[in-house]
Amino acid sequence: MEWKKDSNRLPIIVDGLRQIGKSYIADKFAKANYENVIVYNFRYYKVLRQIFDGNLNVDSIITNSSPYFPNASFVPHKTVLIFEEIGDCPLARTSLKSFACYLAGTFKREQFLNAIDVKNDEIFPIVCPIGYPKDGKSLINTIFRKAAKSDQRMKWEDIFFDRDFNHPLSREKANKYTFPLEMFRLAPSAANKQPWRIVYKDNYYHFFKIDNLKSKYPYDLQRLDVGIATCHFFLATTDKSLNGEFVKLDNLDIDVPEGISYLYSWKMMD
């Protein structure tokens, strides 16, 4: 019963030897506490495995389940799904993480901050979605993305430079670092301002932040954006097995324009 009361509950996994009453216990608990109990037996009804061939988000699973359970009611907070012989359907097992973290609908920022108990001296600048994108885009989504220029990015030659801020870095010279730099360029940023620049010099990639962008927030939003883009860069170097490390240098010997500040450097070690 404590599990039922917990709003952050995770799926229950009942493990053990065969023929010891696991299904009986799960069925008895479900029927005693919920209006609707839907049982998926993947061993005796193999066709049910097809439910998990598409997206593994909760909405898709329920939608795909409806034809197989025409008389069942999928009512939030009143329905329990029991997956029996889940080992016979690996994708059903993978889908458990979707049930473990499920968020739908909209909410007000103030309500969300109160719910996660953000203190007055704390900042919670990012909410990161997880899961699978919905097939197709709504009209509102399309309008907002177009207004925010979400699908546009600055040109390569306006972001990456060679030796100083006067000479663009060519893709040919970037060579094997073309992919990490492109992932950096495509990173998201607040209002799509892309407040970052990189200068390549002497086997270092020096990261800079644009300082003169207006922001209504009391914290350095541009620094946060550069951090996200840098994460893109680092993950891409890891994917391509490019060895290096981030360092902070005292002397760059680069003429930095006004309104731009140095953050850190990537030292190539290949």
Structure explained in plain terms:
With 270 residues, the protein is of the alpha/beta class. It has two domains: 2-100, no CATH class; 139-268, putative nitroreductase (tm1586), domain 2 (NADH Oxidase, 3-Layer(aba) Sandwich). Helices cover 30% and strands 15% of the residues. It has helices spanning 2-5, 22-33, 58-65, 90-94, 96-100, 109-115, 139-147, 171-174, 178-185, 221-239, and strands at residues 36-41, 79-84, 160-162, 196-201, 204-210, 244-247, 260-268. A five-stranded mixed sheet has the order 3-4-5-7-6. The protein has a two-stranded parallel sheet with strand order 1-2. The longest helix is centred in the last third of the chain and has 19 residues, at 221-239. It is elongated. It starts with a helix and ends with a strand.
Brief descriptors of the model:
270 residues, alpha/beta, NADH Oxidase, five-stranded mixed beta sheet
- Gross morphology is elongated
Q: Reading side by side through the largest sheet, how are the strands ordered?
A: 3-4-5-7-6
As a percent range, the share of strand residues is 15-25%
What is the overall pLDDT average?
A: 84
SSE pattern, N- to C-terminal: HHEHEHHHHEHHEEHEE
Number of strands: 7
The unreliable regions are: none
CATH superfamily of the largest domain: putative nitroreductase (tm1586), domain 2
Largest sheet: 5 strands, mixed
The N- to C-terminal Cα distance equals 57 Å
Identify the CATH architecture of the largest domain: 3-Layer(aba) Sandwich
Query: Could you say what the CATH topology of the largest domain is called?
Result: NADH Oxidase
Rg of Cα set: 25 Å
What is the CATH class of the largest domain?
Answer: Alpha Beta
